[in-house]
Design goal:
With about 325 residues, the chain is of the alpha/beta class. The protein is built from twelve helices and twelve strands. Strand 6, helix 9 and strand 7 form a beta-alpha-beta unit. Helix 1 crosses helix 2.
């Protein structure tokens, strides 16, 4: 294994420059940075993270908490975060909070005890135990939120425009000719669920169809959508918009159990574009979120805070996309 001295000699720079490239790359010119990184890759040099942590009082770890690690959506977010963290010289510790505020606080205590350098939380609550730190440090607090954007949190965030995305879904269904549309939301406590519902209502209102929306409160799980879909079928809806692909999967199951077909009898549209969405039967029309990029950008925001770099934006809104597949079509002639 080459030493930092050997890397510096091969790159024609000082050992201090090599160290800055690996720990504070923004302080090094692009040409020098690229030259040093090329030598690092070719030589297989790996810095001694443990020793560096002792010198700088850094744990070289980022804590990332998710409300439900069994949800496939978060897997792609975690992967993007892990890749960006590795590029920046950090490892990622993942915590599954299971929507439990006490568990959220237990993980957050790792930041207070300096067992990790920063926290990224993908839920909608700022752990209560971190309120004093946020009040004391303000913009310098190493805390970033992903996915569940709420301006009341007071921390940097990476998200999509959930209201606009939801409006796109409803506009797609209306454009196909649907007038009686079911909407299965997430929990009312969730800011993104509230934003998506607001977007759906706004789109329907603009089309003069506000009273044609049949709204049911789900919990993002397939099971919650199954029961609601049975009820919505009885209300003669011709399309159902679910606030997650997992709930859309439940809707498809309930439609089949009722002896109906999608999209001939009932169209279905989901949200997230999970990797398996294209393999549903029929392939699922859905709103695609840049899941991996959400993870990557949250880490980049956090690393900027840790390095004292002024970020051009503390609130990052990424693009979404309506992916049209086989689960949506014009209304059929289902017998009422």
């Amino acid at each position: 294994m080459p030493t930092i001295i050997e890397v510096a000699a091969l790159a024609g720079v000082s050992t201090a420059t090599v160290s800055r490239v690996l720990s504070r790359p923004e302080q090094v010119s692009e040409d020098t940075r690229l030259r040093v990184l090329a030598v690092v890759r070719e030589s297989g040099y790996a810095p001694n993270v443990a020793a560096r942590s002792l010198r700088t009082l850094r744990a070289a770890k980022i804590l990332l908490t998710v409300p439900d690690i069994s949800n496939a959506f978060f897997a792609s977010v975690i992967r993007g975060a892990e890749e960006a963290a590795r590029d920046a010289g950090y490892s990622v510790v993942v915590g599954d909070t299971r929507h439990d505020p006490e568990v959220e606080d237990q993980y957050a205590d790792m930041l207070s005890r300096r067992e990790v350098d920063g926290l990224i939380f993908l839920g909608h609550r700022l752990p209560a135990s971190l309120a004093p730190m946020l009040s004391r440090k303000g913009a310098a607090a190493p805390i970033v939120n992903g996915c569940e954007y709420s301006p009341d949190l007071g921390v940097p965030s990476v998200h999509i425009d959930n209201a606009a995305a939801s409006a796109n879904a409803i506009e797609h269904l209306i454009g196909l000719g649907h007038r009686a549309i079911g909407v299965v939301t997430g929990p009312e406590i969730s800011p993104i669920s509230r934003d998506r519902l607001a977007g759906a209502i706004d789109a329907a209102t603009r089309a003069g169809l506000r009273d044609s929306l049949h709204i049911r409160i789900g919990d993002y799980s397939a099971g919650s959508a199954i029961d609601h879909t049975r009820d919505l079928i009885a209300q003669d809806v011709t399309a159902i918009f679910c606030f997650s692909d997992e709930m859309a999967m439940g809707a498809l199951s309930a439609i089949g159990d009722a002896g109906l077909s999608c999209p001939k009898d009932v169209s279905v549209i989901g949200f997230d574009d999970l990797p398996l969405a294209r393999y549903f039967q029929p392939p699922l029309t859905t709103i695609a979120q840049p899941k991996s990029m959400i993870g990557r950008r949250t880490v980049e925001l956090l690393v900027d805070i840790l390095r004292g770099v002024d970020s051009p934006s503390r609130q990052v809104t990424l693009d979404h996309e309506l992916i049209v597949r086989g689960s949506t079509a014009a209304p059929g002639t289902r017998r009422r």
